[in-house]
Structure formats: structure tokens, C-alpha cells
Amino acid sequence: MVLATDLDGTFLGGSDGDRRRLYDWIEANRQTVGLIFVTGRDPAFIRDLCGGGDVPWPDYVIGDVGTTIARITSEGEIEPIAVLEEEIALTWDSSAARVRAALDGRAGLRLQPTEFRYRLSYDLDPDDLDPTAKATVEAMGFDVLISDNRFFDVLPAGISKGPSLRRLIDHLGLVETRVLAAGDTLNDLSMLALGVPAVAVGGAEKRLLDEVGHLPHVHVAEGVGAAGIHEAIATFGLH
User: Fold this and answer.
1) Are 208 and 202 in contact (CB under 8 A)?
2) pLDDT tens digit string along 39-95?
3) At what angle do helices 161-172 and 82-92 cross, to 10 degrees?
4) 147: closest CA among 68, 207, 61?
5) Closest CA to 238 of 72, 29, 37
6) How far is it, in rounded angstroms, from Cα 137 to Cα 15?
7) Nearest Cα to 168, choosing from 187, 194, 199, 143?
8) Any idea what DSSP says for residue 60?
9) Angstrom distances, CA of residue 210 to CA of 75, 82, 218
């Protein structure tokens, strides 16, 4: 099986004991369990996270809310897969400066300092958000993803976690019924709605549950974070 999992609140969520149990299980079954991180985090975060030895290294990374698709090299480097990122780069078309200018000074948005390659991300104050900000970006031909009521991501049109996971699944020739997608917030929606077995872990954002809770391939877990992933593996009989 292959676990394709969000990080914050999902793979990194739950109790210390639940996380340790899941991570140790993955490491003990590396011959039969693949691991893909599907996250809003950037490669530098993942290097720091896994470099300490407490969190398993993934085999592949879909980062930056789907705008990075990369493999982990034998040296522990996160290496973008050019053939899978080509459409992403063309769609973004080096537009960061244009988007920043269009959103400059907009109430309720604070630009995050990280330099992303094919996206822009803002911290969001929903009570103060300029109601025209989303429409402005969409009129420029980009997608806006608001998640957890505190993040405002500007993405290339049609690019998010789900489409990028689909690209990687097809590229690797994975058996879809053996892939488990796991998430907890609205930016995981496209991944959980992809059609592969999926889990919304305990404590998931209500808006995500409203969207996927009725889907037959989605398990709504009671276990929080890592415990919810383990619960779903058993529920779907994946290992």
C-alpha cells in the first residue's frame, strides 16, 4: 500500500504515542508500505522535519499545496520531477510579482515570507478580509484556496493536492485501490475526493467533512491525526 498524507493535523496530528506507533509501523514495513507527503509545506520544512530522525522520510513529496512534485534521492535530497512540474510552471508563468501587486495592501491578508516557486500564500484574518481579494485573483486566471479559515493560497489554475497526486499516481503506475489519501482541512478536499480510498482524520475541519463525509470511498475517522490513519488502514484492509 501507499500512504499519501497531509502533514499538519494529520500525519503530525494526534498523541505522541499514536504518532510513534504509526511511524514505527511504517519503518518496520518499508518493503510493503510507500509514503508520500501531500502538504502545504515547502521542501525546506520537510528536510528539517525528517532530518532529525523522529519522523520517517517519505518516498515522494507533493508540497506547496500541490505545486511541487518531487522524489527523495538516496542522499536525502528533495528533487523535483521536471516532467510532472512542467504544466505547473507553465500555468504559473512566473506570476508572483503580478499577484503580489494586485493584493498589496488588501485588508485581512499578510504575505508569508517563504519564497515559493509556483504559488503565493497569505495568512488570513477572515473577519477583516477584503471581500474583493478572491475575485481579483480569479479574474487574473489563478485559483484561490482558503483553508482552516486562516490561510489564503494563490495557485496556478487547476493545480492543487488532488491533481498533483493524480499525476504522481499515474507516473508511478500505482494501483489506486492500494493508495490511502489522508487529510484534515479544506486544502485536502481535492485529494480526498480523488476517488482512491481516503480518510478524514478525527478533528477534521467541518467544511471538509461537509464535502466528503457522504462519499463511499472516504472513511471519517474517530481517531485524531495518526490514530485516524491507522484506523483507516484497518478499515479498508490495506495491510
Assistant:
1) no
2) 999 999 999 999 989 999 999 999 999 999 999 998 889 999 999 999 999 999 999
3) 150
4) 207
5) 29
6) 39
7) 194
8) E
9) 42, 35, 12
